[in-house]
Specification:
Layout (H helix, E strand, L loop, with lengths): L10 H14 L5 H8 L3 H6 L6 E3 L4 H5 L8 E6 L3 E7 L3 E5 L6 E5 L3 E5 L5 E9 L2 E9 L5 E7 L5 H11 L24 H9 L7 H8 L3 H7 L5 E4 L3 H12 L3 E6 L3 E7 L4 E6 L5 E7 L3 E6 L3 E9 L6 E8 L4 E7 L9 H10 L7
Antiparallel strand pairs: 1-7, 2-3, 2-9, 3-15, 4-5, 5-6, 6-12, 7-8, 8-9, 10-16, 11-12, 11-18, 13-14, 14-15, 16-17, 17-18
Helix pairs in contact: 1-2, 9-10
Length: 363
């Protein structure tokens, strides 16, 4: 049974309710507790300000450019169904545009595409978990949903962390947290299929796909369905595990994209250890995991409603992806064969995808 609190509750009431949940369910994660309370992670974390958390200034571009100073860290990006975790360093960070159009590319051991218009608030956090002190920088969107979390490791530069916190500490250190709900996107119900597919056929770059969706004001999952039998076809959700296992056996480098409104984290390498694990009552949660030394993926495969093979034309030939959508029709994760601009995708990846086969009935 959920313990739902009104968003108008005071920080003291929120803190007390959070404490009660932690006492009744030891080890519960903050995101799960927030769901139980009908709140967001940011609202719970705000109750720690003045104790274990410090608010930071919303100077996102300047703050982002300081990340390399932290040395080797763990970067975590997630959505409702998928989590990517990378251990490594921030290296090349380039910020382009201003205001709502500000974006950043992060290249190196930590690879990401950052959309700063969705960055709303952040905290520096030090929390004692058993015998460990977890030190992190955590960033949230306007609804209080996590965008990016950076956890320091044993070999991280803790002095740089303290300097960043000192330089970006906000004047406001209150525990009150105001949030704004995002307006629901309204998409066209009727799309000129012939014209849409003709424009799809004329794509020259995978990055032109989003402008195509915007041009026709069509939801991504609806676009995938419209293009079925020409550029897309469904595969069974269970074949995602098969794909990862085959890629691991073949030592085939792949790319994995997963993210949220404010950040897309990217894996570009081989995968090795694939495990399906169950959690919760009677194994209700089924997690498909990649458990490698410097990279973890955790995919709630039980929340994935459907999976599609998608082909996008480019000047270098077709680019083939596998896209997984959750039970709300939202994109959870994408898989590609490893490739660089100017080069065709790997034949081994095409063959692997073809080996999964098309399904006649989606499950």
């Amino acid at each position: 049974m959920k313990n739902t609190l009104s968003k108008k509750q005071s920080p003291e009431q929120i803190s007390q309710a959070w404490n009660r949940i932690q006492e009744s369910i030891p080890g519960i994660r903050i995101r799960e507790a927030a769901v139980q309370l009908g709140l967001s992670e940011a609202q719970l974390l705000a109750t720690l300000v003045g104790k274990e958390a410090i608010r930071l200034k919303p100077e996102w571009a300047a703050l982002l450019k300081r990340f390399p100073e932290l040395g080797r860290i763990m970067a975590l990006t997630r959505n409702n169904s998928c989590i990517l975790e990378h251990k490594g360093t921030f290296e090349k960070i380039r910020v382009a545009g201003k205001g709502k159009h500000a974006m950043a590319t992060v290249i190196g051991p930590i690879e990401a595409r950052v959309f700063l218009k969705s960055w709303h608030l952040s905290f520096a956090v030090k929390q004692q978990k058993g015998d460990r002190l977890l030190t992190s920088l955590q960033f949230f969107d306007h609804e209080g949903q996590a965008i990016l979390k950076i956890y320091l490791q044993e070999e991280s530069n803790y002095n740089a962390f303290e300097e960043i916190v000192a330089d970006f500490k906000a004047e406001d250190q209150s525990q009150e947290q105001e949030l704004t709900a995002y307006a629901k996107n309204e998409f066209s119900r009727e799309v000129d299929k012939s014209s849409f597919l003709e424009d799809w056929a004329n794509l020259k770059d995978t990055h032109a796909f989003f402008p195509l969706l915007k041009k026709y004001n069509v939801d991504r999952i609806n676009a995938i369905e419209i293009a079925e039998d020409r550029f897309t076809y469904p595969i069974s959700v269970s074949s995602i595990k098969e794909m990862l296992e085959k890629a691991a056996r073949q030592k085939l480098p792949i790319m994995i994209f997963a993210g949220n409104r404010g950040n897309i984290q990217i894996h570009q390498d081989k995968v090795r250890s694939i495990r399906l694990l169950e959690r919760g009552n009677a194994g209700a949660e089924k997690w498909l995991n990649v458990l490698d030394p410097d990279f973890n993926m955790h995919l709630r495969i039980d929340l994935i409603r459907n999976a599609w093979v998608v082909k996008k034309p480019t000047k270098d030939g077709d680019v083939t992806s596998i896209e997984c959508y959750d039970n709300k029709g939202e994109l959870a994760v994408q898989f590609f064969g490893f490739r660089k601009p100017g080069r065709p995708e790997l034949n081994e990846w095409k063959q692997l995808v073809d080996s999964l086969g098309e399904m006649s009935e989606q499950i």
